[in-house]
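[job 0417] fold request received: histidine kinase
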Amino acid sequence: MRKISLKLGLLFFVFVFAIEMSLFTALYVTLVDAKIHEEFEHLLARGNNHRAVLESHYDEITLQHVVMMESEAETDVAITNEKGDILYFSDHIFPIAKRWIDQTKLNDIPYDGKVIQDNWKNERYIATASPIRINGKITGYVYMFQKTSSIQRMINQLKHHFIIAGMLSVGLTIITIFFLSRAITIPLIRMKRATEKLSKGDFSVRLQVKGKDELAQLGKAIQTLAKDLEYLKKERNEFLASISHELRTPLTYVKGYADIARRPTLEEEERAKYLSIIYEEAEHMQKLVKDLFELAKMDQHSFQIEKEPTPLCLFFKKIYEKMYPAFQTKNMSLVYRCDEDITVHIDQQRFEQVMMNLLDNALKYSHQGSTVFIDVRMEKKNVMIMISDEGIGIPEADLPHIFERFYRVDKSRSRTGGGTGLGLAIVKEIVEAHGGSIYATSQCRKGTTMIITLPKGDEHVHDITS
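[job 0417] inference complete; emitting structure tokens
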């Protein structure tokens, strides 16, 4: 992760550095141009001020006074007549002044003055010219000169300040990028370590995720994945343990009674008894394998549901007729009530499997002489199917778990409890595959009601009792 931190840091630095250098360069050029323009304007304004004084008092004393003023300043002055002949000038400026004055076209100088030398990079002086007009007639010119060394010094100072500011800016940028790249990569490092643990089968991953950005969402997704994998691992272990237990018991019976049945001294009557037990255990294993196969297909999404329009009342009448003899054998009553003209789209074979399982449970856990009710009715836009019995009921603590695989209310898993512990799990999967839902309500020693909700329906009542 140090590599990605370094890459991110370098990438950020290159972009930020490029932006900073562009901004610094633009700012530097703008400031230099502004400062140089300011120097030219200042020099021209100084010349225009002298021109104004001379236009009011054009005499020898005033001319000498102007020259004397400039001798105390950083600028120099030269005053000419209307033809460009130099009359008065500052010390040491005469050769420079004469060269530039001779090159100047006097007719091109406006009354507001003009910069006649602006090459501050290569020349020793910059210069301006301002015409002296008395009574509407040009009587001379005021030439102002300033050494370019002062401008160079000013620009060098400005450059020095910019270099210091740039170095500080780059340093602060590096520090800021260092902490920002660490702030970004530290969560990524934690996520990498978490995924490494997950890949090794350690699902006890806990990520402290804060915020709502993409990194936080990724962290939450990894945390959720870890919890889901941990849950699946636990479920798988429990599932395998349950299968092992469910298969071990009948296999123990089969092996034990087979050993006994093989004894040559065993009487035929006892041999038949033991062979009968072996057959029952083999049937139990066959049912268990069948249920496991059904659940495996559901988990792999290869479980096919082929829906077709089905009149529910006719469907339940067939279920009633099929189950009625079993209830009669146990001296129990089966009652169903169905609203007429209710048609739903279901897989009849699969849904018959649901009803047979639920009715078989009601028959198994109810007392002789009790009644099991099937009630089919419309509730708004849904069809409600309720299977109610008057049996032993389900404890409140067990009720939320009865649709889990291999869960049994009978914790001893006694053989008399019957079933594989997979029936209700299969029922739930089939009902949900139809777009419906199933839940249970129960009271101990008073009975249990299984409630299935499916889309669609109509009304009217039809009763058959036994």
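[job 0417] notes: The longest helix spans residues 2-56. Confidence is low (pLDDT under 50) at residues 413-417, 457-466.
[job 0417] exit 0
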